[in-house]
TrEMBL record:
Domain of life, source organism: Bacteria
Region (Disordered): 202-234
Listed SUPFAM superfamilies: Winged helix' DNA-binding domain
Keyword tags: Cell cycle, Cell division, Chromosome partition, Cytoplasm
Protein name listed in UniProt: SMC-Scp complex subunit ScpB
Gene3D superfamilies membership: Winged helix-like DNA-binding domain superfamily/Winged helix DNA-binding domain
Originating species: Actinacidiphila polyblastidii
Pfam families: SMC_ScpB
Length: 234
């Protein structure tokens, strides 16, 4: 029978054994860089760092960064429907903003599941006061936020980030997914709104932990017009 293997990696796979790491490294290093980057980025589920891509493709990080920026410029110049962006410390393909309606119609059939006003207010407090406990968020907002925090946790916008030394309360922080949805490279790019939020200690008065839990999302169904463009449930 004719051997259909076209190279050492294919031959190893044909024998039923995984190819040695050295063969994989050699195969990756022999690929054209830009098409190889496109192939890898097509399958990532979170932004890929230049360091990781350099390791995977066995290339210098400087070469990886240069190729990524050139690809991004090429897509913009050619008016492609997708964009390659540096977000949350890594690179990933995104739908270009002007083609968002087409994607939304295809994926959601025109039905948008947006965060409510209550959820957005809670997310803002977490973003600017993190790491912060649920009771402190409730104190800043003036209402119990148990239900909203559950919603934000389920959507991956916030995550647990340790405990408060004094009380043992769980602390919450925003996630990389939050950065992705907001189009931010890091929290340093958040708008300068923190001075307008009161210090939690000044308004905390008493803990909200003893209050009955309720879901503000069920009471407030009015979507906002500013942030919901960036954060939708997909």
């Amino acid at each position: 029978m004719t051997d259909l293997a076209t190279g050492p990696v294919d031959a190893a796979l044909a024998d039923g054994d995984p190819p040695p790491a050295g063969l994989l490294d050699a195969a990756a290093a022999s690929l054209d860089l830009k098409p190889a980057l496109e192939a890898v980025l097509m399958v990532v589920d979170e932004p890929a760092t230049e360091e990781h891509l350099a390791k995977v493709l066995d290339r210098p990080r400087r070469a990886i960064g240069k190729a990524l920026r050139e690809l991004s410029d090429d897509y913009t110049r050619e008016g492609r429907g997708f964009d390659l962006r540096l977000i949350a410390g890594g690179w990933r393909f995104y739908t270009r903003a002007e083609f968002g309606p087409a994607v939304e119609r295809f994926v959601l059939d025109g039905q948008h599941a947006r965060l409510t006003q209550a959820a957005l207010e809670t997310l803002a407090v977490v973003a600017y006061r993190q790491p912060v406990s649920r009771s402190r968020v409730s104190a800043v907002r003036g209402v119990n936020c148990d239900g909203v925090m559950r919603t934000l946790l389920q959507r991956g916008l916030v995550a647990e980030g340790g405990t408060e030394p004094e009380t043992g309360a769980i602390l919450y922080r925003t996630t990389n997914y939050f950065l992705e949805r907001m189009g931010l490279r890091s929290l340093d790019e958040l708008p300068e709104l923190a001075p307008f939020l009161p210090e939690a200690d000044a308004v905390e008065a008493e803990s909200q932990e003893g209050l009955p839990s309720f879901d503000p999302d069920a009471l407030d169904e009015t979507p906002t017009s500013s942030m919901t463009t960036s954060i939708t449930e997909t």
